[in-house]
Amino acid sequence: MKTSKLSIRLLWYITPLVILPLLFLGGFTLTNVTNSTKKQAELIVSRFVEQQQQKIFNYIDSFHSITRLLSTSPVLADFLAREPESKNQYIERLGELMNVFASYSEAYPDIVSINYVAPDGKSDAFYSSQLTPAPKSYPFFDQVLQSNLRQQQFMISKEDGSTSLYFVHPIYNIDYYLKQPQQLGFIVVHVEPSILNASILEAPFNNTLNLFLTTKGQILFSSDYDLRGSYLSEYELEQIKSLADYGKLASIELSSIDKEERIIYAVQMTDGDYFISTTPKDLLYQSGKAISLITALIVIISVISLPILIYIVVRNLLLTPVELLGAASHRVGDGDLSVYLPAHTNDEVGVLFNDFNHMVNQIRHYQDELEEYKHHLEEKVESRTKALEAMNSKLEVAIAQAEQANQLKSRFLANMSHEIRTPLTAIMGFTEQLLHNKDAVNDEQHLSTILRNSKHLLELINNILDLSKIEAEKLAVERGPCNVVQLIHDIDSIIRPLANEKQLAFNINYKLPIPKTINSDTTRLKQILINIASNAVKFTEKGSISIDISYNSEKQHLQFAIQDTGIGMSEREVERVFKPFEQADATTTRRFGGTGLGLCISKNLAQLLGGDVQLISEPGNGSCFTIQVAAHLNAEQLQNEGFIHSYEQLSPSKDVQLSFAANSFDANILVAEDNPDNQLLIKLLLQTWGLEPDIAKNGAEAVEMALVNDYQLIIMDMQMPVMGGLEATQMLRHAAYDGPIIALTANVMKTDVDTYIEAGCDEALAKPIDKDALEQVLVSYLHIEKDSQNKWENLLKSEKFQQINDNYRSKLPDYLSQVVQLYRAKEWEALRSLAHSLKGSAGCFSFEAIHKTAGQLENALRSNQTEQVEQCYTALIDALEEAS
Length: 884
Fold this sequence. Notes:
Keywords: ATP-binding, Cell inner membrane, Cell membrane, Coiled coil, Kinase, Membrane, Nucleotide-binding, Phosphoprotein, Transferase, Transmembrane, Transmembrane helix, Two-component regulatory system. The chain crosses the membrane at residues 12-30, 290-314. There is one protein chain. Helix content is 57%, strand content 16%. The strands form 6 sheets. Strands 2-1-5-4-3 form a 5-stranded antiparallel β-sheet. A 5-stranded antiparallel β-sheet has the order 7-6-10-9-8. A 5-stranded mixed β-sheet has the order 12-15-16-18-17, with helices on one face. By secondary structure, it is α+β, with helices and mostly antiparallel strands. The protein is flat and about 135 Å long.
């Protein structure tokens, strides 16, 4: 009877609670699917338009930057700075300016022409990649004169329906004695907007029409070429402006184009123009209709079937188990603890049955425990008391360990403070002596002391940074070829002088055979060996230091055993010596100094290199450190030729070619560095090596100088004002500069170096400047440039080249005849082309007079300087007649 009533009530509640939400959810889903389809299509259109807008913004900003660079060009400033003393000087300056304009035009193909316009509108320096004459005026020039903007752009529609872009930037002569700068003219860059044309032709859907409108409704660009140059009606233009202000899509019928209803999305550009994308409404929303019908059918089926299924499932899974649970609970309430519910499925009801059975078992268990507690209460109290005493003992040990750690930290901080202050005291003291005592003797000794203490201080800081990286698991090691003999030779050159100062014997023993080269991190391996070997010298008062080198072929490990006859260590001290911030004891720190970081770092580095550091020591009998690193030998190195078998092979080979002492170079080098002190330091280093560099104060100046001059190598600082080194390198590579560029930066993390290399740098050197590293990099790349030059000089001396040169000389009379004929016929364009050809070919065959005069004639013809044409023509004729 209860089950029947509960079933009826369940059905009564399920019907409205399920059907009504289903109906609501179905209607919501149907509406949401339709809206979602529309929004998805609208989102595609809006994203497309925003992407095109951003692409156009980037394109326009890039040419604004180029125009700004042109307006601040040192060559242009030199051209405008002072009046020329003669026509030849004016032509020479104009030619240099034309070369700068030509280099920008070649680097950016969209540039049609570059024009320097005086304030009165006269074109004084005009360059056109299409060899067109300078325009007499610009339709927007009055607007430019009335505007106070630093940079302006104009879109001018042509008669053929196409549109050109003009970028304008004023030129000022800054005079600090005037209240405001003097305006010298304008730079006008004419660009054929390839990106705008390409953006207009892209479309997110078929039948999409893209338009680029002016504020007056004129169509400048259109994916339908026939619409270019036409106008929209004022009503349609006002609707588009309203859409652009609110940034949303709307359905509009553009009667000026067709009678079809379109969905339109519009955005406003920086100069007030509008970019719009239109798609037929029926095409945009067609895919949502079928989805809406399917959704409606699914909702109707769900409303009918879901309540019935819920009722059946709930009755079988819930109502019957509830009856069983209720009857069992009633029996437990009456005191019957023998109740047990049958096993059920592994769902929530089954868990409830199991929990009920567990509850009954716990009640029985607690009743039994209660009886037991009554008999054994004293035993429980005594056991709990002992547990509390054990916990108090552990707490006392933890407090003692915390106090020991605090003392260790305080000792390390005091030790580190002493280690850092000691070299700082020497550096500051000797520096003050050199600054305030001009007549001080032993200046060289003082400077050597400052340098030695600076290196010691740098070593302390590097140790702290290395330990921090190790603990953060961010210390990376490299794997590259490492010459074993050269490595031991470097260690010997550092440790032997230290041992000689203390009158200690220093021996290096090779247990042959050993590999010639292993694949490991040379810098880190050298750091380990120097650290442990220098410690051996430090803690040895008399006796000897020895290094035994051997190879374990089974494990493929290279092994170094460093033995000393020093103070030695106890077993307890051996356990502590590889921990950070710890030394043998406090007396050791006071007697010998040190931070307690070196051995900890060495052990971690050895483990990173695939090996370990082990120690055997006795107090008073010295210590023996055994360093093992993985050799990582390849198949070729495992051959017999890859090993050293005789002591005659133990002499290290020196590459004398990687120093300026063994070479002499005549190279033009550009140094881009904004810091005056760094400029002076780098210039001093290069002058020591016989090189006289040019200095650029920022990236923009470096780009300008590199495009005008011929540099064999560029040293580029990455952090500079106006334009950074990264952007300057990218611009130089884009402008076809193919010489080596060496990055100079304080950011030498691998990710930073990869960024510089990807931008076009060939190498990356760290600050502070390492003289040896800078010397090696410069010599390496200058060798490459010198080899190329030698090959060219050998080619010029070859018999084959002489034959070609004689053949070219025989053609000079014919060239002379062509120049005379074209000049008399006044065919200026053909004459300019011939002069350009003669300039290039004569320079290749070392006819410098022809090369120079042909270039002057070409510049005069290109800039339409009719007065200079005759003079340059006469000079070219004389040069051709003399060479013939």
